[in-house]
Amino acid sequence: MGKNIPKVSTTFQFCDGGSCQKAKSEVAVREARAYLRNQGVWDETHTIKTRCNGRCEDAPTWIVQPGNFWYKNVTPEKAVAIVKSHVEKEQPQEEYLLFKEGWSVLLTENEKTVAPPVFKYKKDIEYGEVLIARAFASDQHLYPLFQYFFQQPRPIGIQIGAGEIIVINQPHTVDYNDKYEVKITGEQLELALTIAGIPKDIAEDIADRKVSIAEVIWQRKKTIFTKVLRLKNKKGKHLASFWIKEEDNSTWEHLLTIYLSMQIDNIRIEDDLSVNKF
Can you tell which superkingdom this protein's organism belongs to (predicted)? Predict the structure, then answer.
């Protein structure tokens, strides 16, 4: 029988992402659930395992609702104290909190700073003098970007490997129902790329299509296509390039603002000399 949701007053969300699993999150979850069973409050509470909560540096993490209380480094001992405080006192266990409503900063000693993408001047073996920004190669970034590129007609040019550029002028289906691969299909293109994390023993052809390197390249104005997203596997093999026409300002703006998290009027370039060289 499923959980009777109207009876639930407190929900515990246990992160079950990779980092939390490595930090032995399951042991803490077992202790929490055992406590709730033994205290006879199983029906009034709900426990849920979630995918990654985005705070791997503070693993294992929990979120408790209502109240939006975030907990860090949850050990089996902390787990029981947290559950007991919420169930019996309807209050958070303050000393174990990572964040709660009203705080302006996270209470953590493990904060990781991720450098934002920046354009750098380079002499590229394929394209010559260009500005290149190392971009995001995860499915969380590439899948929505592919949807933007292909679900509405846009003047995108596609180059597979060293082949010719195919100009796409019709909508295409972007299918990410497979565990690892996204498939882009239509009258003009059939392309499969591996964008999810893969195990070491995965089939060789799937591993060969795994996008590990993503670069946004800004060329000199030599052709009708001047900007490109280039994807490679971890061995440096060229998988696909997605070209943007010089006059296609909307797609370029989307790539900058949504994909690279830049401001259109404040594009991050390593130094001003790069612009002069470029």
Answer: Bacteria
Domain 5-99 has CATH 3.40.30.10: yes
Q: How far is CA 37 from CA 30, 70, 84, 207, in A?
A: 11, 23, 12, 44
Residue pLDDT, tens place only, 85-106: 999 999 999 999 999 999 999 9
* Closest C-alpha to 240, from 175, 180, 188, 190: 190
Q: Which alpha helices (H) appear in 139-226, and where do they start and end?
A: 139-150, 204-208
| Token pair in block for residue 108 | 């953590």
Write down the residue that tokens 């100009």 correspond to: 167
Planar angle of CA 152, 206, 210, nearest 5 degrees = 60
Q: Compute the residue count for the chain.
A: 278
Task: Check for a shared fold between 5-99 and 119-277.
Answer: no
Complete edge-to-edge strand list for the sheet that includes strand 225-232: 119-124, 128-134, 213-219, 225-232, 238-245, 156-160, 166-168
The token pair at 61 is: 């993490």
Query: What residue spans define the domains of the chain?
Result: 5-99, 119-277
What are the angstrom distances between the C-alpha of 274 and each of 97, 127, 174? 45, 16, 36
Q: Nearest-CA neighbor of 12 among 45, 42, 38?
A: 45
Is residue 274 over pLDDT 70?
Answer: no
The DSSP 8-state label assigned to residue 35 in this structure reads H
Asked if the 119-277 domain carries CATH number 3.40.1570, the reply is yes
Let me know the angle formed at the C-alpha of 16 by 10 and 19, rounded to the nearest 5 degrees: 135
Dump pLDDT digits (tens) for 34-87.
999 999 999 999 999 999 999 999 999 999 999 999 999 999 999 999 999 999
Under the banding of pLDDT at 50, 70 and 90, the label for residue 270 is confident
Q: Give CA–CA dist 250/253, Å, rounded.
A: 5
